[in-house]
Design a protein that fits this description.
With about 220 residues, the protein is an alpha+beta fold. The protein folds into two domains: about 1-90 and about 200-210, Glutaredoxin (3-Layer(aba) Sandwich); about 95-200, Up-down Bundle (Glutathione S-transferase Yfyf (Class Pi), Chain A, domain 2), CATH 1.20.1050. Helices cover about 55% and strands about 10% of the residues. The chain has helices at about 20-30, 50, 75-85, 95-125, 130-155, 165-175, 190-200, 200-215; strands spanning about 1-5, 35-40, 60-65, 70. Strands 2-1-3-4 form a four-stranded mixed beta sheet, covered by helices on one side. α1 (about 20-30) crosses α8.
């Protein structure tokens, strides 16, 4: 049984975008059995020794799988895909797996930083003078990243072709960071891709449970 460490509470602005959602979504897609272990951020549970032995930086998410501990959402999503034989089909070639890793890394390294900085500014520092000055630069950076992704998705349904896979969980989760803006309107193929990903029953189940947990 896989244990998933998730947020037991979180500020309202980060509901729907916490990185534990990526792991939970992967588990629902793969059908692997798991249990959720919520941690209380406000009480400092993420920094306690019993958790930092699993996640030395005291961040969410992390998993334990029969004594094997793993952190970083992209690493966990790829691990679950390989363990289950789903989201990365066993028939995928060596080069195909390399492409899957490429897009997983692109989601969290090339796209997420630009979008995450804008998200944080808009939700936690919007009234700061410095934030107001910096926002146009962040918007332009986000537009560039989304335009590049839009060019890719114009010729395929998902990142690896016609089938939904592990990198799509990561990329579509990252894209949620700008759903409070109109940026996806300028990237119609990205917007359509995001809608396809979020129409999946596994995502709808996970986000509903997420709301229920954080609202408790």
């Amino acid at each position: 049984m896989i244990t998933v460490y998730v947020f037991g509470n979180a500020p309202r602005p980060v509901w729907n975008v916490t990185r534990d959602l990526r792991v939970l979504w992967s588990l629902e897609e793969t059908g692997l059995p798991y249990r959720v272990h919520p941690l209380d951020f406000e009480r400092g549970e993420l920094k306690r020794p019993e958790y930092t032995r699993i996640q030395p930086f005291g961040q969410i998410p992390a998993i334990e799988d029969d004594g094997f501990a793993l952190f970083e959402s992209a690493a966990i999503v790829l691990y679950l895909a390989q363990k289950s034989g789903k989201l990365l089909p066993p028939s995928l070639s060596f080069q195909g797996r390399a492409l899957a890793a490429q897009w997983a890394f692109a989601a969290v390294n090339s796209v997420e930083p630009a979008l995450a900085e804008l998200f944080v500014l808009d939700h936690f520092a919007a009234q700061d003078d410095h934030a107001k000055e910096r926002r146009p630069t962040l918007v332009e950076h986000a537009k560039e990243r989304l335009a590049s992704l839009d060019a890719v998705l114009g010729s395929r349904s998902y990142l690896l072709g016609d089938e939904f896979s592990a990198p799509d969980i990561l990329m579509s989760s990252v894209l949620r960071l700008v759903q409070h803006t109109d940026l996806l309107g300028a990237a119609p193929d990205v917007a359509a891709y995001q809608a396809r990903c979020e129409a999946r029953p596994a995502w709808k189940k996970v986000v509903a449970a997420h709301h229920q947990r954080l609202a408790a």
